[in-house]
Amino acid sequence: MANIAAQRIKREFKEVIKSEEVAKCAIKVELVNDNYTELKGEIAGPPDTPYEGGNFILEIKVPETYPFNPPKVRFITKIWHPNISSVTGAICLDILKDQWAAAMTLRTVLLSLQALLSAAEPDDPQDAVVAKQFKENAEMFHLTACHWTNIYAGGPSVNKDFDDKIKKLVEMGVDEHEARVALSSYNWDMERATEQLFS
Amino acid sequence: MQQLFFFGKHTISNTLNIYIKTSNGSTLSMNLNPQWDIKNVKEIVGPKLGLQPEELKIIFAGKELSDTVIIADCDLGQCSVLHAVKTKRPVKFDNSGVFSEELEDVGSKPLCETLKDLSNNEDLPDNNQQPKAHFYVYCATCKAMKQGKLRVRCHFCKSGAFTVHSDPQSWTDVLESKRITGQCENRPEECENILNNTEPTFADFYFKCAEHTSLGEDDEAVPLFLVRSNVRSIPCLACGDVCNPILVFPCLEGHVTCLECFNVYCSSRLRDRQFYQHAEYGYTLPCPTGCEHSYITEVHHFRLLSEPQYAQYQKFATEEYVLNAGGVLCPQPNCGMGIIPEGDCRKIACIGGCGFVFCRLCLQGYHIGPCDLPDPDNTDRKDCDYNVDPVRASQARWDEASKVTIKVSTKPCPKCKTPTERDGGCMHMVCTRSGCGFNWCWVCQTPWTRDCMGSHWFG
């Protein structure tokens, strides 16, 4: 890795560590290796969103040409959100693509992602299924996102109905995560989810 | 102490070889002691021209030098040129002459002493505490960025025997012509009348390399005016270090990078072919923080790249120019000749290059009839007359390996045909070639639609 990228990441790492957001436990960053090419980020789900109470882990890969090219960031923690792939955790956010600017930092990236959790942009959706639900069935979206936060990110809200439905599918021999994806995609309609899983 | 003193004396007694151009057109070569003042010079030059020392003006870099100026303070290099002209001032004891206002203070300090660090912004307050000006130039002789020296000549007759009425206050004053007026001492009558007195006589500013011995008055260097001394200790926006010199981008905020980071910025953009072909400035880059109106206007700044990278920069710039002008690049490996064909003819011959004749549309060898779009499953010829193992034949072709790699791992942008590789992420492609930016679907190889979004976002 070029010196500049490592040097810069070192500074930004310190900036995050010292930031007031860390003090408030809103964001966190850890080193994955010694040469600053990969980091582990963590953001707390913002209050008054379905993500509240959850902690979301991020994979941050720093390219050699950083900061002139954006870091590659994806969610490790599975999440139900219109702009984030429920399959790969890939993020659709302009500042991580063509709107990246060399003056942005790890801290601003983490805060932008946290903001994305507060305000989804469903017109530029990474996950079309989630986006459709977000726009057409807001209540169902909220429940589903809360459930995912509970299961994968340690969120507090348990949904007994959803858990039972998944349990039934698991008993039929379906992988738990696959069952959850299918049910979430079909607004927790057992029949349609089963149809899709066994077709 | 004694020794130190002698050592010091020894170094300063090094003579400067200087040329003095006189108003009658002759050039004198002189060895000057850097500790001398201008009065000493006048005393030597005067008799050679048959003039009293008091009748002489010594002009250098747009300033008439006063008698008390020391040679060493003048920013003179070896083989620099001073100009000696006969003064029109009434000599001695005459206080009633037309030039009376100039009489009290004859001449001034050299330009390098009076000039403040030029700002790119014209409206910065004139601050007397600003340090002396430093200029950086790209020197074609040294093939590198060097410190530069600002010089002045007459806009019309190009003679260095020229004095400015005022110092330039900004880079605009220096870089744009007809900003600063002055007095031509070479052919004042002609230069003043050249436009029938409709315009004053203007100064022309140019730069020389401070590193190498001047090769004459035509030995100019290109000013890299975005490179500046970091007098305000601004940290680099990329690495955060306070370096010197720095590059100040021409955006409103004046974002700063160190030269090392500028180099990394340029080479990463060059590698991704992300320079922008600007109609006015050429193949260039904006400020890395994405500011508006921040394109580098003087492309010589890219001379800060290494030699091979600069060569690549020139190649890409030429290619982009050809493509923007509706031309094509010869598809033969190791050729790549730029061809701007006339008319709509589909048959293109690489004249002046490798001689390859190809189809403008599919960039394959020229053919009659419609283009045969490559079928990814079957790249081998079927019409071979004798038995050849198709596997062996396909392995035994020159350049085949790279062609196959490109064919297998890339798809062409539907708009500009640039082979594009997808290294993860979703199926939504945005063409990275500057000026294209086409949104397309990796699966359909058509424009990106909401249907693509719904049915095969991740394949």
Automatic annotation (TrEMBL), chain A:
**What GO molecular function annotation could you give as one example from this UniProt entry?**
ATP binding
Matching CDD domains: UBA_II_E2_UBCD4, UBCc_UBE2K
Q: Name all UBC core domain ranges.
A: 4-154
The active site of this protein is located at C92
> What does the record give as EC number?
2.3.2.23
**What keywords tag this UniProt record?**
ATP-binding, Nucleotide-binding, Transferase, Ubl conjugation pathway
Q: Where is the UBA domain?
A: 161-199
InterPro entries membership: UBA (IPR015940), UBA-like_sf (IPR009060), UBC (IPR000608), UBCD4_UBA (IPR042614), UBQ-conjugating_AS (IPR023313), UBQ-conjugating_enzyme/RWD (IPR016135)
Q: Which family does it belong to?
A: Belongs to the ubiquitin-conjugating enzyme family.
- Listed name of the protein: E2 ubiquitin-conjugating enzyme
Q: Can you name the source organism? A: Aquatica leii
TrEMBL record, chain B:
UniProt enzyme class: transferase
Q: How does it assemble?
A: Forms an E3 ubiquitin ligase complex.
Q: Which family does it belong to?
A: Belongs to the RBR family. Parkin subfamily.
Subcellular localization is given as:
Cytoplasm, Cytosol; Mitochondrion
Q: Main site of residence?
A: cytoplasm
Pathway per the UniProt entry: Protein modification; protein ubiquitination
Biological process annotations from GO: mitophagy; negative regulation of intracellular signal transduction; positive regulation of catabolic process; protein ubiquitination; regulation of anatomical structure morphogenesis; response to stress
Its ancestry begins with: Eukaryota, Metazoa, Ecdysozoa, Arthropoda, Hexapoda
Identify the species of origin. Answer: Aquatica leii
Domain RING-type as annotated: residue spans? 232-459
Q: What keywords were assigned to this record?
A: Autophagy, Cytoplasm, Metal-binding, Mitochondrion, Phosphoprotein, Repeat, Transferase, Ubl conjugation, Ubl conjugation pathway, Zinc, Zinc-finger
The UniProt record lists the Ubiquitin-like domain at: 16-89
Q: This chain belongs to which protein, by name?
A: E3 ubiquitin-protein ligase parkin
Domain of life where this protein originates? Eukaryota
